[in-house]
Structure formats: structure tokens, C-alpha cells
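Sharing in case it's useful to others searching the archive later.

Someone asked me privately for the predicted structure of AraC family transcriptional regulator, so I'm posting the question and my answer publicly. Question first, with the sequence:
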Amino acid sequence: MTPRHDTVVRYGSPQETLVRVIGSRTSGTGDFGTPIAGLSFFRREAPSPPAVCMVEPSIILVAQGAKRMWVGGEAYPYDASRFLITSLDIPVNSEVMVASPEQPYLGLALKLDLRMLAELIAQGGLPPRRDRAMGMGVGIGVATPTILAPFGRLLELLDEPEAIPVLAPLIQREIHYRLLMSDQAARLRQIASVDGQGHRIARAIDWLKLNYALPLRVDELAARVQMSTPTFHHHFRQLTAMSPLQYQKWLRLNEAKRLMLNEHLDVSSAAFKVGYESPSQFSREYSRLFGVPPKRDVAALREHANAASQSEGTLRNNAA
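And my answer, the predicted C-alpha cells:
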């Protein structure tokens, strides 16, 4: 189905609240944290090409504009009528499809609390569980008024900061309940249920995130999460569109990029720091993932960041 980008926003509706609050609390292009734990905003004023990033277990809502996420070569388009949900940490390519200075792309992400999901499942009262495999750990759901309403109330708390510690956890719990009642419930259940294969893969991913620089023996990691090696391989690839070794490589390369960009490590030092024994192999694999050699990529990113900083400084001076 072709996504629609002309969703009508009614004044006073939860959708209008999302547009108003995100628009008033963001400017230019960027990602913005909020005083509410796990909640962040996004704003883009032009379409953007796919960018490599890691998406944590989250629900991502579009208030205005449209976006598309690529996972394992499969596209997941979403806009104000549909939300994107990820049930575990997934490497993706993310691109903004519809945005302009007059009508910027505005969105939010709320990190999912898997423990809260498990508690709600244990309490019962939810629709019967379906045991069919859900495949990828990412999906598109319908952004119904029932789901949007608590998000509107959550964002309105930003104007009442003293109420955030008391009311935000209650509203977030309602959001998790609504998601377990939505068309994406089965995807969340497979990760939150402690006896499920998805939960075991999530535990393996947690281990990889902490130990990406260590040599990886897939059979030992499979045993760690109490799965046979063939079953582990199958479910890991099914949920992440990657093998465990590819996932580790992705983590290493992105951490090396961060080290070079933020901590000013040279290429060889970054390669050794994340577990590579050969800087030349590191450079080849970095180029395959990011499209350019590491030294050139980091130089371009720094130049872009400096230009953006100078532009913001000019705008502030002009405003003054």
C-alpha cells in the first residue's frame, strides 16, 4: 500500500498536539532529548538519503512528513497514519522522504520497556497469544486514535514539568498496554516473553553490545542463551536480517566511527580498539558499509558539522 502524506490534522486532536509540541520544542535539523526518560524528538527540513543507525526497541511516530527505514533490503515506509516499531536493537538505514522548511518532518521515538511489557503480559487480560512466527524484529502498525491519545497526553506533560515524575510512568504504561492490544502485539510478545526464542536473541544482542571487541564463537554464544547453533543462527537472522558475525561487525565499525569522530583516534588505533587485527581489513569493511574509506568519511563529517555550527552561529548573530 502506498503511504499517504496528506493526513488531515484536526485542531485539538492528539495528532495536532504532536505537531504543536514537537514543532515548538525543535528547530532546524536534529535529534532532541526531552525531560521525559526515553522520549526524544526529531526534526528535518529536507529529504535525506539513507543514513546508517541503530534503532533500540522503540515506537517511532511521525507527526508530520514521511520517513522510510530499510532493514535487510526491505523497506518500511511510515507517516502520520502508521507507526514503526522495533522489538530489539536493529541496525537500519533511515531516510526522510517528505520534509521542507515550511512543513518539516516532525517525529518522536519512545524507548520500549521490555520489563513493563512482560509484566503486562503476565497480568493477563490481553488477546490470546498467536504462536505464528513474526519474522523481522521491526514492523509497521496503524496509528489509531487509541494509540495516539496517550502520546498526546505524554507530550502535554512537558508544559507541566513538576508532574512528569508522577504521571509520565503511568502514561507510558498505558502506551505499552495499547501496543499489546494493537496489530503489533505478536511482535512484542515474542521478545518480551521470557520463554520465547525472541527473548533469547535479545539476550544474545545485549551480550554482543557489551563484548563486540572480543573474538566471537557463535556456538558459545548460542549455548549462552540456551539455543542450538543452527536454531540460534536461524532466529538471529530472521529477527535482525544479519548473521551474528555481521551484527558484531556492524557494532565494531560504528563504534570505530564514533571513536574517530568524537575522540579523534586515527584509523589504526580505532581499528585495534574495536577488535580488528588488521587496519587494512578494517578499512575495506568500513568502506563497504559506509561507502567511503574511514579517513575520508570522518573528514567529511567533521566539515559538515563545522559548517552547520557556523550556520547556526550566523543565525543567532542575525537574530541578535
